[in-house]
Description:
428 residues; Beta Polymerase, domain 2; eight-stranded mixed β-sheet; two-stranded parallel ribbon
Amino acid sequence: MEITDTPKLHSDWIDPHAMGIVAALQNKGYTTYLVGGCVRDLLLGKSPKDFDIATEATPNEVRKVIHRSYVIGRRFRLVLVKRGELQFEVATFRRNGGDDIDDEEVQGDNYWGTPEEDARRRDFTINGLFYDPIKKAVIDHLNGNIDLEKGVIKMIGDPDERLIEDPIRILRAIRLSHLIRFAIEPDLRISIQKNAWTLVASALPRRREEILKFLRICNPSLPFLDAFDLGVLKIVSPVLDEAFSCEARSEEFLRFLYQYYSADFETPLELFSGLIYAYFRVFVEPDETQPIRANQILENYKIQQLMSSELGMFKYEQSALAKALQALHLLQKREDFEKKGPKRQLNLLKMESFPLALKIARWDHLISNNDWHYWTKVYGDARETIESQILEEKKKKKRRSRSRSSHRSSRKRTDSAELQMDESTKTD
């Protein structure tokens, strides 16, 4: 184990709430550190998006020390600490279970361990670093600091065993290498190619989350190309693998991915919409003057396979995406919109998919900057009215639902009374 005093990191980037949680647990005598990605990012001079905490205190002990904390999870129990809109995860140091474990109270993955045992359970050496913000010291059990300096992503333990243990680490390694611009260590790269097939058995929701993280990278084309070269893409997304294999059109598809950074896509729906729109424009209908119909998205076999089986998009996301793409041609007809009456104008602006359509139209330069400013202003001016109407429609829908429910109950009571009268008549 290596302990580095006063490392060169931006300690002022550490969230004060996270610092307070660590300090409170340490004051009660529990060894407690910041762990994982936040330590890696701090050492790289990047501001972490969130802060994870590991401690020797058990979940119930943490709950007693930290206010507004809640024990969550069954298989993997940890503590969620709420501070305003922020949340912090506090996990107890763990070790891998084995034959020598005979504690009947231990269930699932809850084998408490030491900091070193906990570090060895993590995926990559650069994610196995701990930081004590009180003593300002980095605790390195696995030479993660060395790999951080080398700019290398290296697996903790045997790469084959660790990837088979959790195949999602394959996607994580590819994504992380392009997020922080590190090289994947040669042995790990070979193992990824060798074990790509194991992703077949991985859970679709977990693959969905990793693909979304691909799309959040400034240039998503890089992790997708890497996944293609390593033989990973043909396992997780045969449709996209076929797209990258098409020499005649793959460059145009990549052009869309190059431009993702300028799209301001944030939500999963927006991120997936950009990808599906790019696929549609390159491989289904390249002519931008042709309006897109919703059924061209929802009834196209390959797009359906991509959305449902490969990306794990929910039905409501697919529907919202199809409606947004169908609305694109309306944004290109500003003059027609201006000729409509206020009520018909509001009907267009009221479409739930309107903001998404506007984002895509601007991203692919389907409308001019002048038109984009116009649509943004018109939508902004009408937003209060739209929200009021939507609220009123929800209230009406609720009242109708109650009325139908009341009518059914009344009908049941009437039917029951008639049945009792019939039985009484028969008895007489």
